[in-house]
Amino acid sequence: MDYKILGKCFSLNLPKDQNELFQMPIKKISLTTLYFIKSNFSKGLLWIGLKTGLIDKVMILPFKGFGNENEIYFLGRVLKERGIVNSSLEDGPWKNFKKMYKRFMSWEIPGVKIKASFQHIEQTVITDEEGYFCVHLKSPHPFSIDAPWQEIRLELLDPVVKNQEQVTAVNKVFIPYKNVEYGVISDIDDTIVPTGATRLLTMLKTTFLGNAHTRLPFPGVADFYQALAKGNDGIESNPFFYVSSSPWNLYDFLVEFLEVHSIPKGPLMLRDLGLSREQFIAGSHWEHKLRQVEKIFEIEKNLQFILIGDSGQHDPEIYLQVVKDFPERVKIIYIRDIKTSRQTKLLAIEKELKNLGVPMLLIKDTGEAAAHAAAQGWIPEAAIGQVQAAAEEP
């Protein structure tokens, strides 16, 4: 990496035509100015970090992906090594806060090349200004698949710090293999785990002071999701995909949360909350979730899906649009009813979905969803009792 270039970048690159800038609407002026300030501040901070040695080691953080027999898709990020280890039940609020601080106060590495290698193909991609990269491998010949989870090798091709050793990572991607009956796409916040997503202070407290052990899922979720993963044949082969408006900074936290509570692993589709040229927050909740769900539908083109969400943050509206865009691909929509003031709207969506041939079930607890899934033959009858017993636990 050229330190001189980074140093030169530490200047406010406002539009050359200042008259054009001042002719913009006030809101546009504010957003444009803030974006350039933010962008150049980040570049300057990175330059200082590299020159002073505050950034002495970098890492590739890949996010689990998915694919089919001819293509693979996933995202990742290049960051300063953060040194975050898994949490324990004994960790207190201060220790949890320090880990969360490291997740959000990260040093991103822009403009470096990453090589992805899988079987007979390779792809080289470049990180954007927030350190993100996207790998979308496409092959004219089918991949050789002997298991649902495949490993992709990643290598950083550019030097970032002095005396840098080889920087590599291995990512895992899901490719449908055998005995797949359906896929499951689930929201996380207030669907799997209570977060108070509709109450800002509650959400911030639970996010920054808790950890993967102290944050508890809704009763019965783990048992129900395990039953869905196994399906009616009892073989754990049905894939899970998690779509959330939580930031990518929480990725490792959420992966650990799923593992600790025995919730089926799967790709997580999160979002960047950074300031962009067009928006104060990069993408609205609606746009982000719809785009990610439909990306899954596009790549997993041979699967039908069960969609799971909650009534608090427009999951029903998003899933309705998915049903319209992908007819005959959705088996059922389960919506955890968190009792908002949107009941009239929910009933209207339920009626519209019914006319499209897709039922939407508003559920009060996970046991109700399990009973319905068993009645449809998607999970065995024997699973109902276990899920309902867990759902009734205090």
Account of the 3D structure:
The protein folds into three domains: 3-52; 58-174, Immunoglobulin-like; 183-391, Rossmann fold. Strands 1, 2, 3, 4, 5, 6, 7 and 8 form an eight-stranded mixed β-sheet that branches. Helix 1 (3-9) packs antiparallel against helix 3, helix 9 runs parallel beside helix 10 (343-355) and helix 11 runs antiparallel to helix 12 (382-391). It has helices at 3-9, 18-23, 26-52, 93-104, 200-209, 221-230, 251-260, 285-299, 315-325, 343-355, 366-375, 382-391; strands at 58-62, 65-67, 71-80, 113-118, 121-126, 132-138, 149-156, 168-174, 183-186, 240-247, 268-271, 305-310, 330-336, 360-363. It is an alpha/beta fold and 394 residues long. Helix content is 36%, strand content 22%. Residues 1-28 and 276-281 have low confidence and may be disordered. The protein is built from twelve helices and 14 strands. It comes from Cecembia rubra. This is Phosphatidate phosphatase APP1. One of its GO terms (molecular function) is phosphatidate phosphatase activity.
By CATH, the topology of the largest domain is Rossmann fold
How is the biggest beta sheet arranged?
A: 8 strands, mixed
Poorly predicted runs are 1-28, 276-281
Radius of gyration over all CA atoms, rounded: 22 Å
The CATH architecture term of the largest domain is 3-Layer(aba) Sandwich
Q: Based on Cα principal axes, name the global outline.
A: globular
